[in-house]
Amino acid sequence: MIYLIYGSPCSGKSTYIKEHIQSGDIVCDVDRLYSAISFNGEHQTELYAQEVASKLYVELLNVIRERKGAWKNAFVVSLANTKEKLKAEMERINADEAIFIDTPYEVCVERAKERPFYFQFLIQEWFETRDL
């Protein structure tokens, strides 16, 4: 199965995956790819890490979409916030199911206090343009 896990920044997408992932499953999360490349934490924004992680992300999505390999389930993290974006991402990865992590704005903002300052802006923008 391919699951698209979507919601606002700081909504709990990674937490959901940690609670549901099993042996043999894979995760496609650009934050985790940044961390693996830079070894500086999940929410770093160094340009070199962004460039490399973006390319790896696209390749991993191709592996998932084409269902290559012996993995059981794939969890793809998304910030889709409109019906149109959600539909496009579902089609792009050939997802079987979309799971919305519906966390209130205030909770996301509170969680963002532990992350770089720009997360406050990302959350605000996500909610302002939301159409779900």
Give a written overview of the molecule:
It is a single chain. The radius of gyration is 15 Å and the shape is globular. The longest helix has 19 residues, at 47-65. Strands 2-3-1-4 form a four-stranded parallel beta sheet, with helices on both faces. 50% of the residues lie in helices and 13% in strands. The chain is an alpha/beta fold and 132 residues long. The chain has helices spanning 13-20, 30-38, 47-65, 83-93, 105-112, 118-128, and strands at 2-6, 26-28, 74-78, 97-100.
SSE diagram, text form:
Elements: E1 2-6, H1 13-20, E2 26-28, H2 30-38, H3 47-65, E3 74-78, H4 83-93, E4 97-100, H5 105-112, H6 118-128
Parallel strand pairs: 1-3, 1-4, 2-3
Strand element count:
4
What is the mean pLDDT? 92
Q: What integer value in Å does the Rg equal?
A: 15 Å
General shape:
globular
Helix coverage percent: 40-55%
Q: How would you classify the helix and strand content by structural class?
A: alpha/beta
Strand content: 5-15%
- Main pleated-sheet profile: 4 strands, parallel
Number of helices: 6
Low-pLDDT runs: none
